[in-house]
């Protein structure tokens, strides 16, 4: 997949602008677990996912994590280029959740085009609004929903993302996604198991009653597009 | 204060673009308590604060509130024009916290200029990044900090905003800012009072030991600009 097909506004850039982006862009292949970007200081550049999966999360001073969004094929990671955006004052860490193949567009090249191109600036706006909506959704979750609902929701999302009901994931890792502690996750998963909704084994969680998990976490994620 | 001086990119717009914005903009004067915008469906337009103060907050299905940011003189409220931004899928309510004088720039007029003007699109980007940072800050608060820290922080901010250590504010109202319940606020304020940090009376909270309140809530808000 080439860079053009990942950037929907490509055709609205001038030939010069297209050239400067494609000349500057490099390919990068990373192994699962690689940290691609950490904190606000680095300027890694815009990351475009050709294949694989990335995770963006924030870290507390004590090392607790919470996932703020995932990026899959064709997604563009804006905050790895946050130094480009004036006023961004928070630190996001981005890691590869699967072996991934990326385009990296250096920040300077992207910014130079964005400053002159209304289409690219408006596209950047759309990217940011999308991420903003994900964070607001997460905020509403954290504020108004109980932990069992959030955990059920996470398991269902993960299952959809992985295309399987048998998830290879540790309780520690789930805690890192949800900004919680391992013990809290373990306790709730055991409760889910006692209710027949999941089956636990070392390093895995199998969803055995998707219907009840769904009922538990309703209103589900799409409900944020509320009328 | 005219519209030009509120929009820092004014001079980088063409004469035509300036004209279409200033022709479309209207003045609006609102009383304290007026709800200016609610939810994602309405398209109130871009609000520019000439004087007064606005508050943007989200609401849970059960009617709980949490303040996501405040807008004071010269601030621009983007999310009252969120219908303009593709991908924004959350509902923000905006109300006047003080009697306010505003410019309202209708969404269509703003969008028409933004689509052709890289400077205005990039400025809109900056506005959004600023709000995004505030929301991420809030997320970190909600996730990682205890309620006493958040309450102390709120009281200090409020005192700075009002220019007084004697705040006229109800516990109910504080709960609405922090996404909490009135009882929880009352209990914590009573504890603060027993520690000599505040003095409570009907409808008011007086800060009597700013130093200890500050120590309690450290790291303070500016700490989000962390290195």
Summarize the helices and strands and which ones pair or pack.
Two copies of one chain form a homodimer.
Chain A lengths: L2 H4 L8 H10 L1 E5 L4 E4 L7 E6 L2 E6 L5 E7 L4 E2 L15 E4 L3 E6 L1 H10 L1 H27 L2 H16 L3 E2 L3 H8 L3 H13 L3 E4 L2 E4 L2 H8 L10
Report on the architecture of this protein.
With 227 residues, chain A is an alpha+beta fold. Chain A has 2 domains: 3-139, Jelly Rolls, CATH 2.60.120; 145-221, Orthogonal Bundle (Arc Repressor Mutant, subunit A). Helices cover 42% and strands 22% of the residues of chain A. The two termini of chain A are 36 Å apart. Chains A and B meet through helix 3 and helix 4 of A and helix 3 and helix 4 of B.
The first-to-last residue Cα distance of chain A is: 36 Å
Question: Hey, which two chains have the biggest interface?
Answer: A-B, 47 and 46 residues
Largest sheet of chain A: 4 strands, antiparallel
Mean pLDDT of chain A: 88
The largest beta-sheet of chain A arranges its strands as 1-8-3-6
Number of domains of chain A: 2
Shape of chain A: elongated
At CATH level 2, the architecture of the largest domain in chain A is Sandwich
List low-pLDDT spans of chain A: 220-227
The count of strands of chain A amounts to 11
- Note the total helix count of chain A: 8
- Give the full name of the CATH homologous superfamily of the largest domain in chain A: Jelly Rolls
Task: Classify the fold: give the CATH topology of the largest domain in chain A.
Answer: Jelly Rolls
Just give the CATH class of the largest domain in chain A: Mainly Beta
Our Rg estimate of chain A from Cα atoms comes to: 19 Å
| Derived structural class of chain A | alpha+beta
| SSE order of chain A, one letter for each helix or strand | HHEEEEEEEEHHHEHHEEH
Beta-strand content of chain A: 15-25%
Helix content of chain A: 40-55%
